[in-house]
Specification:
Elements (H helix, E strand, L loop, with lengths): L6 H5 L15 E2 L11 H10 L13 H11 L6 E4 L1 H13 L5 E5 L5 H8 L3 E5 L18 E5 L11 H10 L4 E5 L20 E6 L12 E5 L1 H11 L9 H12 L1 H24 L2 E3 L6 E6 L4 H10 L2 E2 L1 E2 L9 E4 L3 H15 L1
Parallel strand pairs: 1-11, 3-4, 3-5, 5-6, 6-7
Antiparallel strand pairs: 2-8, 7-8, 9-10, 10-13, 12-13
Helix pairs in contact: 2-8, 3-8, 4-5, 4-7, 9-11
Length: about 350
């Protein structure tokens, strides 16, 4: 511990990302990456963007990408924000919309970056417990909170709220900002983006990392009314005006324009998720109903930690959270059919 650290750094518990090991080759089912590569059109755009222009700063406004996203979602350019991954955008939300000491709320079991950001930016937070079936209780959010942060589908459960439930939440809490984190929405859930035109208290955050196979380029975006987007831009331009590089912007544009590849990739993952879930149920696993590119599973005979350690020893990485309430679950990212068949085979050996 350095004597030069601030009190914030000294007291904070940083987010711990999924393992990215280098000791040997693994089947990686631990960080919800897309098992399929970016489309050829995206790779071509990356190659084309890798030229002498890299000596020049990128467009700080990401204007072409923003107009491309606005056209895709049928919203105005001023209702779109682009940033360096959805995590950065979520981080920008805290100083953009809340004051030090404000109370925000999110589910007790959800994306573990939310409490980290709250601590980093000096906010207080109230968590709400999940229902017994691990769904989010939308009636449980406190009325005194200044904002609500909601991952939909939720992480790490994979369970999604219906659009009508999101709308009910927006109506009930019309005086506070509701940020919907839709990192996994493309795998079968309903996006809240259509509600933006009717609810000024809604901000939707999405990413290119999962469904568009671009986790390595760190591209995210948000959609909301122009005042919310202006707030994000004020923070961005007070922190780093050039958040998205030239290559990332061109890759993202190509990914949005190659809608056929995007939809085909999502459909393949959804199909594999369904097939794998059925096989795991046959092995005695409890499998939560997922609308994400992962499954959240538990078994009543062998504890999750033992599964985790044995799989790792056999060259298969999954995610284990030693957190009260979910410490007997594994989060398993959806890989290729071949990878998932290997996983199921190993789990069958363990439980037989």
């Amino acid at each position: 511990m350095s004597r030069f650290w601030s009190n914030t750094v000294r007291d904070i518990s940083p987010y711990i990302p999924g393992e990215q090991p280098k000791d040997k080759k693994y089947i990686k089912l631990n960080t919800n990456e897309n098992p399929y590569p970016p489309s050829q059109k995206v790779l071509d755009a990356i190659n084309k963007a890798t030229n002498y222009d890299l000596r020049l700063y990128p467009d700080p406004e990401a204007s072409l990408l923003i107009s491309t996203l606005a056209r895709y979602y049928n919203v105005a350019d001023g209702e779109v924000f682009a940033g360096n991954g959805s995590d950065e955008i979520l981080a920008f939300c805290f100083p953009a919309f809340f004051n030090t000491g404000d109370v925000i709320s999110f589910p007790e079991i959800t994306y573990s970056f939310y409490p980290v950001y709250s601590d980093l930016f000096g906010l207080k937070y109230e968590t709400i417990p999940l229902n017994e079936d691990y769904t989010v209780n939308i009636d449980g959010f406190p009325m005194n909170a200044k904002g609500i942060l909601l991952a939909n589908p939720n992480a790490p459960t994979g369970i999604a709220l219906e659009l009508r439930q999101i709308e009910n939440l927006l109506q009930k809490h019309s005086d506070k900002l509701v940020i919907v984190d839709e990192a996994y929405v493309d795998f079968g859930a309903e996006s809240a983006i259509p509600l933006i035109k009717d609810y000024e208290n809604l901000l939707v955050v999405q990413t290119f990392s999962k469904s568009r196979s671009l986790a390595g380029l760190r591209i995210g975006y948000a959609l909301g009314n122009k005042d919310l987007i202006e707030g994000l831009n004020r923070v961005k331009n007070s922190f780093n005006s050039y958040t998205l590089d030239r290559v990332a912007q061109q890759a993202a544009i190509a990914a949005v324009n190659d809608d056929k590849y995007f939809k085909t990739s999502c459909e393949k993952i959804i199909k594999t998720r369904h097939t794998t879930a059925q096989k795991l149920v046959e092995l005695g696993f409890k499998v939560l109903p997922s609308k994400a590119n992962f499954l959240f599973v538990s078994h009543n005979k062998i504890c999750a930690k033992e599964f985790f350690l044995r799989l790792r020893e056999d060259g298969i990485l999954v995610r284990y959270f030693q957190i009260k309430g979910i410490d007997n679950f594994l989060r398993i990212s959806i890989g290729t059919d071949e990878e998932m068949n290997i996983l199921v085979h190993r789990l069958k050996v363990y439980v037989d």
